[in-house]
């Protein structure tokens, strides 16, 4: 198609597109907090209308035991491949709220960046796919491929209901390739297609001591303190270099070829700049692996939160009744989340301090994912990026998890193409999340082009 | 005097006394929280009026750089000794609020126990001294001794301004004995005079990592996590049996004589009952010391709180920017709080994990305290208890700290008598603090009798 025409269309409609996106971002659809249940519903309804407005058909909100899935399609490209677009309309919590420069659900553009929770992860990126379809239908009256959208509301809580939904709707979700924009680029102006993601295994550890909080002066020294107990457990998980001490943790880690590691080493990664960006004096982690490798090809165990005792202003000499901690592991092929959680349980059991009871609850689970980076669907995405960004595309892995990716791979048996437009500096999951609008503008063109590229894929 | 007359007086006025005490307890005078500044002032004003109503003279509120001290006296027992009564009108914070059966500042009597924050520690016990003086002045028109009250508003935050106040008012505070009711009895119906208290040394540890919260998937494994770092530091403080691993921590601990330890062993202490009361399966602590000894004659290090990362419902895969913890040590003679804090700092410096900065702030400090248990002022207190409770008085030490006791000892050079009426089960510093009214009723009589006993002390 005439890319100039497409370009003009996106320029003409830019302000309207941004206003629409802001409306989407104003909905505080935090999936992990029950008080936002209604906002989740609002998010799904907003999306359904947006898909219909774009010209998609059969738009509907499918209930699940958790948050609903939004579906829509356009299936009039007879004999052509079908692209399944996945995204999510739920977002992360926003605390600590006081660190946001503007409120998380009151979107603001500053310095060509759109600030709001979800701006990048993943409302902004999902929205681009809708607008690309709308553009092509407006300009051409048709799409070069068949297309299906499946947009869920539970990604940030580990997509507990989507695998069953996908299994139950296998026929309807039949496609030739899955496209997901929920990952990042290599850096500003440096497009990347991601062919591997880490998996996830999360637990909560609850330590219980005396039945009520005690005065630490009267009982300290004679009654085990749950805070000491949890500190001991947490400290036992890793050595001083971050090597995980859980028995058998690394057993199933697939070796990574020298060739692949050489490709990672060749990426323009500026460690000193990264450290300045993060505000750290020194990086950290397993000896023998680079910063990139530690986050892409090595599994991790990170404490995400600890609570217990008094945390207000001043001092309170309490020996608290309980303490708890949330932990998530990132997994690499071929680690299995259930196996890792069993190993974490065994570790805690073996390291349980005296005088307390310890309870472990499973949280999120997601398998790691890997597609050969020379797959045609992946290479086609690389070409679309190059046309717009005018630089070679990097083929990368990523440290984060999109748990559903492995499920798509397993249930539908399709290649998954991760075309991300986020930047690592965009604070997703943290205060002041934002989205660089340069990548919003370019991304609309990349996605539109990819639909033409996908038309040539083998059915 | 005629003790029957006194008894009748307390019986007749019981309801009125309780209503007055409830009014005192309704003032949320939490010293550690700045938002309660006005309530502290209210508490001081209420006390001044109550002292005046009792017949005390020269009542006044003395400002300090922190919360005010309330003073009053009655000095008409010419040639007789002077008793200095110390108490505090500030209280501990009340969180977690949801664990209170009735609101902390809405006093309720259930099962002859008065429930409210401060009911036992220390508003209830301080109030008894005021009412004992009021009773004697009402019945006899005079007291058998001279008496001075000094009631502070910063005990729960370590009495930062009282030592200087005492030093600057040495002449005015001249006395022959100091009486403090801010400790506990041996058990229900088992009076105790305490002759030793542990000291206190508190610090806060703040660990800082990256400048903002990070996504644990994207950065986990390559950036040090402040929560892991703080867990490592905290776990390094003690071994699995609670023996403190800080270099030189036990250096200045005075040996305790076999005779004294035999007396402790002879106390009726029921470990199994204690464990049931506390809801623990097993006790904990240094080998070679009993439960009682671990809390009375051995120093401790207890974590009072840890915060950092996400603690809401569900999961948030964050690698947080910071983590912090509050810690207090209980000290025994002759450990020095400043020396111990220096040793804690050195320990943290030596155990600082890679990749983070660690900052330590001093908190409360209080020296340990010890008076010979055969001192006449102590023995006299034992007799007053026995007359009312009709059982022998135990002479004990205590695990808690009343930091000002050591300062009184040091600055005024007076014997300190700790006549407590609390019970260990009364949840002070915890939800559902209460005061057994049996000890309120008996305590009024013990305190009144002690003023007659004190009249015979050598001036």
UniProtKB/TrEMBL annotation, chains A, B:
SUPFAM superfamilies: Zn-dependent exopeptidases. It holds the Pfam family Peptidase_M20. GO terms for biological process: proteolysis. Residues 195-354 form the Peptidase M20 dimerisation domain. One of its GO terms (molecular function) is peptidase activity. Gene3D superfamilies: 3.30.70.360, Zn peptidases (3.40.630.10). Keywords: Hydrolase, Metal-binding, Protease. PANTHER family: BETA-ALA-HIS DIPEPTIDASE (PTHR43270), SUCCINYL-DIAMINOPIMELATE DESUCCINYLASE (PTHR43270:SF12). This is Dipeptidase. It comes from Planococcus salinus. The lineage of its organism: Bacteria, Bacillati, Bacillota, Bacilli, Bacillales.
């Amino acid at each position: 198609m005439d890319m100039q025409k497409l370009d003009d269309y996106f320029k003409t409609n830019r302000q309207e597109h941004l206003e629409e996106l802001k409306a989407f971002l104003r909905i505080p659809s935090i999936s992990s907090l029950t008080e936002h249940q209604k906002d989740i519903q609002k998010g799904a309804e907003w999306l359904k209308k947006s898909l219909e407005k774009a010209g998609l058909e059969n738009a509907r909100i499918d209930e699940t035991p958790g948050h609903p899935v939004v579906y829509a399609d356009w299936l009039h490209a007879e004999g052509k491949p079908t692209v399944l677009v996945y995204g999510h309309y739920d977002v992360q919590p926003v605390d600590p709220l006081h660190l946001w420069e503007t409120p998380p659900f009151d979107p603001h553009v500053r310095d060509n960046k759109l600030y709001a929770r979800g701006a990048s992860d993943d409302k902004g990126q999902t929205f681009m796919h809708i607008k690309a379809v709308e553009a092509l239908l407006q300009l051409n009256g048709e799409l070069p491929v068949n297309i299906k959208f499946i947009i869920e509301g539970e990604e940030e809580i580990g997509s507990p209901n989507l695998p069953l939904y996908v299994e139950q709707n296998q026929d309807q979700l039949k496609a030739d390739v899955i496209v997901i924009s929920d990952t990042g680029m290599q850096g500003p102006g440096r497009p990347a297609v991601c062919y591997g993601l880490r998996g996830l295994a999360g637990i909560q550890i609850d330590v219980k001591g005396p039945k009520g909080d005690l005065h630490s002066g009267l009982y300290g020294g004679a009654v085990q303190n749950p805070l000491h107990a949890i500190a001991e457990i947490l400290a036992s998980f890793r050595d001083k270099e971050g090597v995980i001490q859980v028995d058998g943790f690394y057993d199933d880690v697939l070796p990574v070829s020298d060739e692949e590691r050489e490709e990672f080493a060749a990426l323009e990664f500026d460690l000193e700049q990264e450290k300045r960006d993060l505000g750290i004096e020194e990086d950290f982690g397993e000896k023998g692996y680079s910063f990139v490798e530690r986050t892409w090809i090595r599994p991790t165990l990170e404490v995400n939160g600890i609570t217990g005792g008094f945390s207000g202003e001043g001092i309170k000499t309490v020996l608290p009744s309980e303490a708890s901690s949330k932990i998530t592991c990132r997994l690499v092929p071929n680690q299995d989340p259930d196996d890792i959680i069993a190993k974490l349980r065994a570790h805690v059991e073996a390291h349980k301090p005296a005088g307390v009871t310890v309870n472990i609850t499973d949280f999120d689970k997601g398998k790691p994912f890997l597609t050969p980076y020379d797959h045609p669907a992946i290479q086609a995405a690389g070409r679309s990026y190059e046309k717009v960004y005018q630089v070679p595309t990097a083929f990368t892995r990523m440290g984060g998890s999109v748990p559903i990716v492995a499920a798509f791979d397993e249930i539908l048996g399709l290649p998954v193409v991760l075309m991300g437009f986020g930047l690592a500096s965009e604070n997703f999951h943290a205060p002041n999340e934002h989205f660089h609008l340069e990548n919003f503008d370019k991304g609309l063109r990349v996605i539109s082009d990819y639909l033409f590229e996908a038309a040539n894929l083998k059915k």
